[in-house]
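Quick log. Single chain, no ligands specified.
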Amino acid sequence: MLCIKHGKIITMAGQVYEKGFMLVEDGKIVKIGPLEDDCLYQLPVDARMLDATGLTVMPGLIEAHCHMGIIEEKKGREGDDCNENVEPVTPWLRGIDAINTMDAAFSDALSAGITGAMIGPGSANVVGGQFAFIKTHGRCVDDLIVLAPAAMKIAFGENPKTNYGDQSRLPVTRMAIAGLLREELFKARQYLNKSVGEDEADFRYECWRPVFEKKIPLKAHAHRVDDIYTAIRIAKEFDLLMTIEHCSEGHLIAEELKEAGYPAICGPDLSNRSKIELQNLAFKTVGVLNKAGVKTAIMTDHPVSLIQSLPICASLAVKAGLDYMEALKAITINAAEICGVSDRVGSLEVGKDGDFAVFAGDPLETRSRVLVTGIEGRIVFMDKDGECRYTGSG
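-> predicted structure:
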């Protein structure tokens, strides 16, 4: 059992305890509340203690869209497994088969208080394959999975156009991107509507089953207004769940996006306008969408911007107009809900995983440090120069 006490606990479930405590047992939160309700006398003698006096305790932060471990740092082409860019439609690919948990980015994530990440293929293909939501500490990716598959990646706009246009093959236009996606969805729906025995199952289309059963969403890479509208048109045509990724021009159509009803994962705004479709990239987008009533999260799209910059991105969004608490939600509970894992992570509540981060200072202040990161009640990162008092073996 781990007991965290005396810190300011921001639960992201509506409660803020200026001096609180939290108990984690067998990986789950079993009690949380104000310090006066503390039941320390009931703790076993071998309980681990974390004194967070003067510090802020939050749920572990969540990266809602990245390619950590798939595009590895320091390894160049040999470590880049992000895009199977010789075939435009590859729904059967699984991100978990390319995630290297030994990538240095995982350590950086822990040092920033990030305990969960949505990781999957890139956007060179019209259909890229399946994302997975995993924890950020461990060696075997199978042991880190919270949800897999968690989404099916699709992409619109310049990336598939450029990749296949340079090969002088389909798709060269936005029309062809939409056409290829419709054809794939049409064939998948036909297959899934048939009654097939186990010996007749087609691996090529079985991967679409959780999408059409609305267990997971399409994860639609779309920056420009017209691409966002095309994504919405196709999702409604086939009656599918969808999250809009990047949504760089979303602030131009905020009310329309609210009416459409799809959440947006915004970013990476901490990057340059390297493409024409990024000309309206701005930190204000997430705030404008949030005020319009669109559920929003913030991404780094690591390695486009570094994974450890996630709280900085949230801070810059506040500077551009996003409400402070909404910024915290965008990297915790909103991100968890959009990724379909809020039953386990995203807030500090009884029954959820004991994933947390302890900050010295305001979590969105650039100079603030993460002193401790915990996953399922286990200390997985500790700042050796920090002032946190801890008794336990990890």
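The chain is about 25% helix and 25% strand.
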